């Protein structure tokens, strides 16, 4: 009753009412000395099940009042606990996520909204206190990979059109899974990225739309991700040579944005595609992917000698999101 009372609350009072409810649930879930109460898992599970009943409104999860309430409770609990005592919350989130993703994969449900809501909560929980409430990143990378694999499966499945919340939820799901991946990459260690994260990165670069991949790269550059040159830059170099012929203008705008805004940092980092002077190395040979690769330096020189209708380029180019907190 208290959760759904938000739907009847006047808009002017909604923020205060939501904050008050979040504090109420938090006080019911917390214990002394940074511990959670023995009933915290049951209360949080009940909140999630109430959240699943709500229909998504707007283009973002943050536009949904009940989601904002549960996200606030999640953040309050994680800020209060330590890494060890936060495991109650993580166990509930991961168990619920596994149930919902399995139901969608096995087609035992026609709603993907619960899975999308859990993606948002997992993304939020991952970055609380700079990831200090995460005990192990491998299970999170594996769950994030499930989201990308499932999205790819739904996109190619003719029966996916039967999902009652397909179009809107799929759009939000695309944003939330990339947002979660950015948080995981930013907070995890080099060991986690090499052992687990790169498998997921391979999947993303191979299957996600090019503007999505480039937006993710810009976001991580703006966040000054320490592993950007070592791990992400080789993917971008290979992507540029492989996709130059079909997506030249989009790629040019990406690299121009990167250098114009001083987002490329070469000092103090190691990369196989960066020289000691900070120059990015593009291969002159075809890549192992089997695609016809361009000699980018030569192609750039040829491009500069061509007459360019810049108005047409700007009008027809694909939009690359800024990466400013939205991906």
What key attributes describe this structure?
mainly alpha; elongated
Brief summary of the model shown:
61% of the residues lie in helices and 0% in strands.
What do these coordinates show?
With about 325 residues, the chain is mostly helical. The protein has twelve helices and no strands. The longest helix has about 35 residues, at about 230-260.
Low-confidence stretches: 320-327
Distance between the termini: 35 Å
Helix count equals: 12
Order of helices and strands: HHHHHHHHHHHH
Mean pLDDT: 86
Q: Helix content range of the residues, please?
A: 55-70%
Q: What class do helices, strands and sheet pairing give?
A: mainly alpha
The percent range for strand residues is under 5%
Topology, element by element:
Layout: H1 14-29, H2 40-52, H3 65-80, H4 87-105, H5 113-127, H6 138-155, H7 166-187, H8 190-207, H9 210-222, H10 228-260, H11 296-305, H12 310-316
Helix pairs in contact: 1-3, 2-4, 3-5, 4-5, 4-6, 5-7, 6-7, 6-8, 7-9, 9-10
């Amino acid at each position: 009753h208290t959760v759904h009372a938000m739907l009847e609350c006047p808009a002017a009072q909604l923020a205060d009412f939501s904050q008050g409810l979040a504090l109420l649930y938090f006080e019911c879930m917390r214990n002394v000395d940074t511990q959670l109460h023995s009933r915290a898992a049951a209360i949080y599970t009940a909140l999630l099940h109430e959240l699943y009943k709500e229909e998504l409104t707007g283009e973002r999860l943050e536009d949904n009042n009940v989601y904002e309430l549960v996200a606030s409770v999640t953040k309050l609990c994680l800020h209060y606990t330590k890494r060890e005592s936060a495991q109650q919350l993580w166990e509930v989130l991961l168990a619920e996520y596994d149930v919902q993703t399995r139901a969608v994969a096995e087609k035992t449900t026609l709603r993907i909204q619960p899975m999308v809501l859990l993606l948002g909560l997992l993304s939020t929980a991952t970055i609380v206190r700079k990831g200090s409430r995460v005990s192990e990143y491998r299970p999170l990378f594996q769950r994030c990979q499930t989201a990308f694999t499932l999205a790819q499966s739904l996109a190619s499945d003719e029966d996916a059109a039967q999902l009652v919340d397909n179009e809107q939820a799929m759009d939000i799901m695309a944003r939330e899974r990339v947002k979660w991946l950015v948080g995981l990459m930013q907070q995890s260690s080099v060991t986690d990225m090499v052992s687990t994260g790169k498998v997921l990165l391979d999947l993303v670069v191979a299957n996600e739309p090019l503007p999505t991949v480039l937006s993710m790269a810009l976001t991580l550059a703006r966040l000054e991700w320490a592993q950007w040159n070592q791990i992400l830059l080789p993917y971008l170099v290979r992507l540029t040579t492989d996709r130059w012929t079909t997506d030249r203008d989009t790629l040019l705008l990406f690299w121009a944005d990167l250098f114009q805004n001083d987002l490329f940092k070469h000092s103090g980092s190691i990369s196989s595609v960066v020289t000691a002077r900070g120059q990015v190395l593009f291969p002159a040979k075809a890549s192992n992917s089997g695609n016809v690769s361009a000699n980018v330096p030569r192609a750039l020189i040829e491009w500069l000698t061509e007459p360019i209708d810049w108005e047409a380029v700007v009008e027809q180019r694909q939009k690359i999101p800024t990466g400013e907190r939205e991906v």
